[in-house]
Design brief:
Alpha-Beta Plaits, elongated, alpha+beta, single chain
């Protein structure tokens, strides 16, 4: 009898664990829906969020997709995971926009810019 209770409790906890794991994945996916990752941008000495925001606003003007600083919820460089990459100055920049529509427009305009111009976007 006790073994059955322990098995049932374990089974119930395992189901709850998988349910919570799925819920966390759904929430994380929802949060990232409006994110843009910009790669190969050299890091400036003493770079801060203000510098990154100015860079993204300037980039948006270049591709004719007006994003102002109020449209950016957060901006940061991805942290170094491995010691060998510690001195890498081209860490990706993650831009959290206020809506997925802005993200879609930004990506469409960046693609359109690269199609229209022989000189592609680069840092």
């Amino acid at each position: 009898m006790e073994v059955r209770i322990v098995r049932n409790t374990r089974w119930t906890r395992q189901r709850l664990y998988y349910f919570m794991e799925d819920k966390i994945e759904d929430l994380q996916r929802g949060i990232r829906k409006a994110n843009i990752e910009i790669k190969n941008v050299p890091k400036k000495p003493h770079e801060d969020k203000h510098d990154l925001v100015k860079m993204v606003v300037k980039l948006s003007e270049t591709i004719d997709c007006q994003i102002n600083k109020n449209d950016i919820k957060d901006i940061y460089r991805v942290q170094v995971k491995y010691k060998k990459d510690k001195h890498n100055t081209n860490l990706p920049i993650v831009v959290e926009l206020s809506s997925t529509i802005q993200k879609t427009d930004f990506l469409k305009m960046a693609l359109s810019f690269n199609i229209r111009h022989k000189e592609k976007l680069r840092a």
